[in-house]
Amino acid sequence: MAIFLTKDSKVIVQGMTGATGMKHTRLMLGDGTNIVGGVNPRKAGTEVDFDGTAVPVFGSVAEAMEKTGADVTVVFVPPAFAKAAVIEAIDAGIGLAVVITEGIAVHDSAAFWAYAQSKGNKTRIIGPNCPGLITPGQSNAGIIPGDITKPGRIGLVSKSGTLTYQMMYELRDIGFSSAVGIGGDPVIGTTHIDALAAFEADPETELIVMIGEIGGDAEERAADFIKANVTKPVVGYVAGFTAPEGKTMGHAGAIVSGSSGTAQAKKEALEAAGVKVGKTPSETARLARELLGA
């Protein structure tokens, strides 16, 4: 089983013909992703050869969906044009938009998030500034390395890209049902809570690993949700225990003000909801193993 992405997902890539889009389209194809097209209005009607696999380029998301039945788009469009690209995907009614692009202005992210809401949330947005998501052995939509884990029993949701990769590697012998990198910007689409609900409903996910970081209150809200709605064991990690107050650390959303948003406050909220929280990624992985008896 999986959440949001399966072997049957038909994926298009907005920005496929750019250097980053080309690189990661090749890697996604290597992971078995069913990539059915790219989108670039200036190169519509052409094809791109990826090691013997010819991928057609369409002029719009709507055209790509009409011709291929695509239901997922991965967005590698530069920041200045990303808002328009996501709105185009929403207008076309695609089911899932995975926005990898880093450096999108917060008001642009807020605008396309609100636009998706106004259209009835027909398009699930993951990101922006995220590594995407992977269902090992089935499909990979984004930039998560496909060779560091295998299919298994753990569901992973994470704000941090690199910590996503580390946790997948640490628990690679057990494997993952799906791993979702939601991004660390102040405004994102899919949240910890959305992923937790999906993993709770997935019959083959036995344990959930949730990675947060300092700043905001997303982890505290997730703790409330876990307490009320999640029956499966959850293991957590919060990055940023040594971060100085008032300094933005890496992600745009990772800023602490007073006691609000600190790693300790998040750890305490999660533990109060019954979540076992590690102080390091390796300790978190050990806690997961203990709970699974692995």
TrEMBL record:
Pathway in which this enzyme or protein is active: Carbohydrate metabolism; tricarboxylic acid cycle; succinate from succinyl-CoA (ligase route): step 1/1
Positions with a binding annotation for substrate: Y165
A Pfam family assignment: Ligase_CoA
CoA-binding domain mapped to chain residues: 4-104
Domain of life: Bacteria
Any one GO molecular function term: succinate-CoA ligase (ADP-forming) activity
Main enzyme class: ligase
Residues that, per the record, bind CoA: T17, G18, A19, T20, K43, I100, T101, E102
Alphabetical keyword list: Ligase, Nucleotide-binding, Tricarboxylic acid cycle
Role: Succinyl-CoA synthetase functions in the citric acid cycle (TCA), coupling the hydrolysis of succinyl-CoA to the synthesis of either ATP or GTP and thus represents the only step of substrate-level phosphorylation in the TCA. The alpha subunit of the enzyme binds the substrates coenzyme A and phosphate, while succinate binding and nucleotide specificity is provided by the beta subunit.
Assembly mode: Heterotetramer of two alpha and two beta subunits.
Protein name, entry field: Succinate--CoA ligase [ADP-forming] subunit alpha
Organism: Streptomyces orinoci
